[in-house]
Prior knowledge:
This protein is an alpha+beta fold. Helices cover about 35% and strands about 20% of the residues.
Amino acid sequence: MDALLERLRAGLPAEALITDPDVTASYAHDMASFCDAGTPAVVVLPRSVEEVQHVMRTATALRVPVVPQGARTGLSGAANASDGCIVLSLVKMDRILEISPVDRIAVVEPGVVNATLSRAVGELGLYYPPDPSSWEMCTIGGNIGTASGGLCCVKYGVTAEYVLGLEVVLADGRLLNTGRRTAKGVAGYDLTRLFVGSEGSLGIVVKAVLALRPRPPRQLVLAAGFPSAAAACDAVCRIMERGHTPSLLELMDRTTVRAVNAMASMGLPESTEALLLCAFDTPDPAADLAAVGELCKASGATEVVPADDVAESELLLQARRSALPALETVKSATMIDDVCVPRSRLGAMIEGTAAIAEKFGLTIGVCAHAGDGNTHPVVCFDHTDPDESRRARASFDEIMALGLELGGTITGEHGVGVLKKEWLARELGEVGLELQRGIKSAFDPLGLLNPGKLF
């Protein structure tokens, strides 16, 4: 420990090091439940690429594991500390280095908060689409590490589609540049995509070149209530089959609607079994909403309410953004699943989740990026009750198994971390797992970067 601190201090300012155990303990974990976390030896908050390189050279020399962190809003334990590790928190590297309206790119450090970037490019008539629910807190580095999604993915895609290039500090302290600043580029293997979603296991992202789009018109939102989740999912299939491109297509089940009303008095219709929110940011969103409204009625919607203006639309979107915080008030703890299935199997996924909730005697609310087939079943439980905690964990696993049975994946945007290691192995298979471990070994032969995550 003394040797580690001595070497770190040789290349870092005093304020970049935290050794007080009461403070370092607060950096031990992210927001996931049921994920073990160790005790870090030290927390480092660098402000420059050179300081990150110094940390990694020190870690390599002394064979000390390093756990990269952003804002720790993750839900898989990917940012959890291991015993004796260096926690490398990148939140102080928070500069927007460049915004180019001509090239339609932004160059940023990893600690830039998603919402901060979105507002900055918006002032120049540009748009950075990825918008996780935690966008007011989560950082771009964390978004890249977990390949985050968001509410607008149905039209605009996920984080991976906006990362053009990266500057990465490797495990031994060398600096690697990947990708490009240009609109096109296919030179060599696509190492940029390899780092996106790698959860800090291959290198430390210290700079990112991000693609931007022209800012679209303000969207209008339609809310439709349905007598069953199956009917709402049928509407989703009709909307996508007819070629519509909504900017948002979200679903909340009855449990979620009631939780949102209880927390925020939103006035959502509690009699509905499923609430579908659909938005368009097209030149004539009212016409698009009218067409979608007819499809919802054909699927059995009991109520279809298009917003009259942007303010009403924002109120409806706030209800969706409140879904996870609201479900967290139902019991003392939650486990948030992140299973993505083909859109055509969305109804089976939601109905199957309801059956799992009944089987285990639990409250499980479902909110979903319905246009992507990305469901977020939220298991609500009393963490002080050992039996209920056991049932919560068992239900979580059954939900993931259901997703795989329906042709889906164990995570659409939250990542694997600690929580889903066993399930990643099942999804990849023996050959896939062997190759991925080989890639990890090529970048990090000593296994120092975020050990115990993914595999």
